[in-house]
Amino acid sequence: MDQSAVDQQRRAPDALVSYVFPIYNEEGNIGVLYREMQQVVRDLGHRVEFVFVNDGSTDASLDILLAIAAHDARVRVIDFARNYGHQIAVTAGIDAAVGDAVVIMDADLQDPPEVSAELVREWENGWDVVYAQRRSRRDTAFKRITAALYYRLLAGLSEIDIPRDTGDFRLIDAKVAGQLRRYGEHDRFLRGMVAEIGYRQKAVLFDRHERHAGTTGYPLRTMIRFAADGIMGFSSKPLQLISRIGTSMAILALVGIVYALVRRIVYPDAVVSGWTFTIIAVLFVGGVQTLMTGIIGSYVGRIYTEAKGRPLYGVRAQYGVPTRAIAPTG
Ligand code: UDP
Ligand code: MG
Questions:
Q1: How far apart are CA 91 and CA 68, in angstroms?
Q2: Does ligand 1 lie within 6 Å of residue 216's CB atom?
Q3: What DSSP string describes 275-289?
Q4: Cβ atoms 113, 30 nearer than 8 A
Q5: ipTM value of the model?
Q6: Distance 67 CA to ligand 1 centre (A)
Q7: How far is 47 from 135, CA to CA, in rounded Å?
Q8: Is 101 in the pocket of ligand 1 (CB under 6 A)?
Q9: H helix runs in the chain, sequence order
């Protein structure tokens, strides 16, 4: 099929756009989100479905979702058996989505609903991955600084080109979603996986808002773990770093030995002094070795997780049917 035929198909009113929302304790946001989305999808000119993945919320999120699903056939709810984390929730949403395009958005209104319409426009123009790139963000200074440093580190380490200042807010074409479904890895870093898949990718700039209500579901510990998934999932450079550090330390040791020998020969009577130096040297070597073992351990742990081959998630119940199964109305 040539490109203009693809564009034609994407512009057709019966083209279906799936929205995927991961939900973890978002009782204060779902209502507003759903309301704002109504306006956006009215102007979209496509059929839509909303796939909400309830990731083991402990508040009233599920009840609110079910109430919405009860009167809107476009709404589907996937209720997880427990909390599996944001990346897995998004994965389940993509797995379930049946649209010609899939939009992934946070449910806390940090990703502005109206920007999703811009993503759809670029998809109609022929782009297969349209990611929303932050022009600015309203987060704590700590988060902004660590994120900026992290994305620069990741760019330096990883073997693929992961766009800076992007989260998971993006649109992917059905064929990208299909390819993504074949990625079975457990420690998921979706933005990296999408970058690796390729296709025609396009950035749309936007200003990221503050969280509307509630608190972040990403405590620091989870954030660090996620950051490590990004680096280790897309780079083996930390492992190469180990041999580099090892080599440098061996060279340093050699210099020390030669120095000690020469001193011994030139001044045979000199007293060997320097407890402090000995202890520092021992602690230094011990510390570096432990760190290096830790790096290896992080990779081994991830290999172990993959080796067990457990399912990515468990679903307690599903509500609603895929929009494709419903006859299109005018
Ligand atoms: N989320 C989830 N499972 C979790 C944590 C978060 O599904 O274990 C959802 C959350 O409801 C939101 C999105 O993932 O829609 C982003 O989470 P959050 O806003 O807490 O992260 P932050 O924006 O602070 O990085
Ligand atoms: Mg958020």
A1: 22
A2: yes
A3: HHHHHHHHHHHHHHH
A4: no
A5: 0.96
A6: 22
A7: 29
A8: no
A9: 3-11, 30-42, 61-71, 86-96, 113-124, 141-157, 174-180, 190-197, 220-234, 237-266, 275-308
Query: How many CB atoms sit inside 10 A of residue 197's CB?
Result: 20
Which structure tokens are listed for 269?
């009577």
Over the stretch 83-103, which tens digit does the pLDDT of each residue have? 999 999 999 999 999 999 999
Is the separation of the CB atoms in 44 and 17 below 8 Å? yes
Of the candidates 90, 91, 89, 73, which has an alpha carbon nearest to the alpha carbon of residue 81? 89
pTM over 0.80: yes
23 lines ligand 1 (CB under 6 A): yes
The answer to whether 227 touches 150, Cβ cutoff 8 Å, is yes
Q: Which residue has the tokens 């920007």?
A: 115
Judged by its nearest atom, the ligand closest to the C-alpha of residue 167 is: 1
Q: How far is CA 8 from CA 42, 77, 173, in A?
A: 20, 31, 15
Q: Which long-range contacts (CB under 8 A, 24 or more apart) does 192-197 make?
A: 192/158, 192/160, 192/162, 192/230, 192/233, 192/234, 194/129, 194/131, 194/170, 195/160, 195/161, 195/162, 195/163, 196/160, 196/234, 197/129
Any atom of ligand 1 within 6 Å of the Cβ of 22: yes
Residue 55 beta carbon below 6 angstroms from any ligand 1 atom: yes
Q: What is the mean pLDDT of the chain?
A: 88
- What is the CA(108)–ligand 1 centre distance, in A? 8
Q: 102: part of which helix (H) or strand (E)? A: strand 101-104
Give all strands of the β-sheet with 101-104 in edge-to-edge order. 201-208, 129-137, 166-173, 101-104, 16-23, 47-54, 75-80, 315-319
Look at the chain and count its residues. 330
Question: Is the pLDDT higher at 17 or at 243?
Answer: 17
pLDDT class for 272, splitting at 50, 70, 90? low
